[in-house]
Amino acid sequence: MTNSIPEIENNDVLFVIGSNTTETHPIIGLRMKQAVRKGGKIIVADPRKIDLVRFSTLWLQHKAGTDVALLNGIMHVLLKEHLIDKDFIAGWTEGFDTFRESLSEYSPERAEKITGVPRKDIVKAALMYGKAERPAIYYTMGITQHSHGTQNVFAIANLALMTGNLGKESTGVNPLRGQNNVQGATDMGCVPNQYPGYQRVDLPSIKSKFEAAWDAKLSDRPGITATEMTDAAIDGKLKALYIMGENPLISDPDSHHTEKALKSLDFLVVQDIFMTETAELADVVLPAACFAEKDGTFTNTERRVQRVRKALNPPGQAREDSSIIMELSGRMGYAMNYNLVEEMMREIGGLWPAVAGITYGRIEKGGLQWPCPTLDHPGTPYLFKGGFPRGKASFTVVGYEPSKELPDKDYPFVLTTGRQLFQYHTGSMTRKVKELNAVAPEAYVEINPADADSMKIEDGDVVSVSSRRGSVSIKARVSERPPRGMVFIPFHYKEAAANVLTNPQLDPVCKIPELKVCAVRIEPASARP
Amino acid sequence: MIKVIIDGKETRVPKGTTILEAARALHIPIPTLCNHPKLSPYGGCRLCLVEVKGNRHPVTSCSVPASDGMEVVTSTPLLERIRKTNIELLLSDHPNDCMVCEKAGDCTLQELAYFYGIRENRFAGERRIYEKKDANPFIERDMEKCILCGLCVRVCEEVEGVSAIDFAYRGFNAKIVPSFEKALDCEFCGQCVAVCPTGALTGKMWSYKGRQKDVRDVDTVCSYCGCGCNLTLHIRRNEVVRVSSRDDTINEGWLCAKGRFGYSFVNSPERLKTPLIKEKGTFREASWDEALDLVANKLKKIRAKHGADAIAGLSSARCTNEENYLFQKFMRAAVGTNNIDHCARL
Asked: Does A193 reach chain B within 8 Å, measured CB to CB?
């Protein structure tokens, strides 16, 4: 997030696109509802009638995967209505003229044709966002999990840049991170091309800094992403995988493919708190401590580093992940010795100035938001005040590209996947909580009543949902939430894993899979041979 | 800004500030049961009554805004008598089962009864008898303990935006009910449980696990989504017995069903307790030394034969910053590859 959670309630317009906020980020959802009570207006852009639509002034029900056309259409109107921030564009950005040209082909009429959103609503959205004083954009995986996810994000950046809606309190661009410490894992360099603090592994000066600090010879070849590891394993290039606390068999697209990849490895180590579906395939399973059994920090979606405290001893012989890694590293001939967890934090601060000012003492209460470079720095609630770190921000020309797999005669429905309120991710934690399972016991596929009628499917019927990659049996939930022609399956349930069906097509830049759009066929289960 | 004098202490507050808020800013305690700083004033419990110079009758400090030059007295024999009588009236129809009540020790009503030294029931009479019929797994609703402060109704509407419950009936028969008095069916965020000042609303899974004695409180951060809500884990005998959240945090004390009630995985009997090594397709238990030696030797062998880039690591968005830092340092410095990622894209 470029802004902070408390800033949300002072937005006068909240443009929420591709985020089912009240279910996936319930407490951020509360702040959005608070903004509405204070007079703010919500624009929801989502193919499904998500709960937040109840609180919205305008709902743009665009077809899944047409975000770029919708956003470009809105920007076309902003340009035409002169609702752009010329001073901001001149002072802070580059590439506007080429970008401006590119919008000419996205008239509201054409955007309506692609997205299915009435042109008057596109104009209305543009006027609402363009005339707002403190608007912010919110998005999650509904924007990113596409084969053109990077393009979607560029389109959002363009929208904020052309209106100058960045770098101010309660005004900005806010991707909501889906997991408790996914921000931190990225910050800490658990990505194949960057060391901690977004420092590139292929820049010699950076590499030598880390080599000196870690007293080790490092590789300057960027590694492969999680989604690429699957193919590398099948191709035989990847021989061993060490997985700490992840369950790719359920979370990754095309589960059959993932299973084949994990089985192709010579050696798989899984370190986790439960025997997950992925751990079942491992050669060695290492029992780890859970969040309540360790000290450390998590970084939330607004870059706030907060203290995690040990409340319990881990069960049996389970150990903290840090202690397992240190033990293993010593056995590999590279000693890592830390007496206190905070020593690691200090080492990180020495290598990444943005967190140099964060100490456990300072975050005893409340946490601190990076950048926080010095011990007397108060932290940074919102980013880009007074400029961008790289100088000028660039506009990127973004054209609409359809999703890779669209419905056809054989697979006539669009499947989209996501989370629901009572379960979490692959369910390795929430499915162990009996109370949560009592209210959300099983997988379901949401089907529009008109579609259900035409296939003679009733609420609660077991149906078979198939894509080109696999098939699951699952209960139908007849619901007004999805539009006609679209179905939704939450991906938490291993018994009817949505990712058996999803398309592993990757975005060429960031390698995110297209989990939000694939084509499926639905048949009553009894019709199956 | 306007000037107010409370119990002889002068302060300046913004226009619109209630007398109660002004008093709290001066650290002057006024008892309340139906007030919450994040919810609209209600004026129902009549405990926050104060005397305002020039007014013939006491006023509810929670709902009356301070005005310029106002002089307020928060405690007089009359006010204390009214407060005590109001608490007695509430208790006259309250189950006398603090001994086994989940809320004992953390109950505002109990605490007020203690401070006002209430032992007898001067107003004994008809009692409300309600059947408990909620089948939901999260929230226990014991309406006989409800004092009708309406905090649950307001939090459900004003914070959660759900309005799952409201007042029904009048007078002695008044009670808080879900629509048509059906079983509660809502988002089960438990915001109502968090604000309930008595034992009327509690967590079902809390029961008989431990109240205050021998229960340790540990502040930490939720392990589900990226909001970063602060949790207080209540621990007894190495078990999480309850989760709550402080209101001076980024989430203001509000949580969702997962954060508030979804903690039992921590103490699940299914947790992994020992290293496991797979032999001929089945796992057997192993010591840490054996398991770690095996992993290190295997990785070294694969590296020697195929190079470091034949090894990859997946780190965890569920683990701490420090663990993630160590994990990537291990892959880069100890193994020698940049093949490291986590589930940011999933």
From this structure: yes
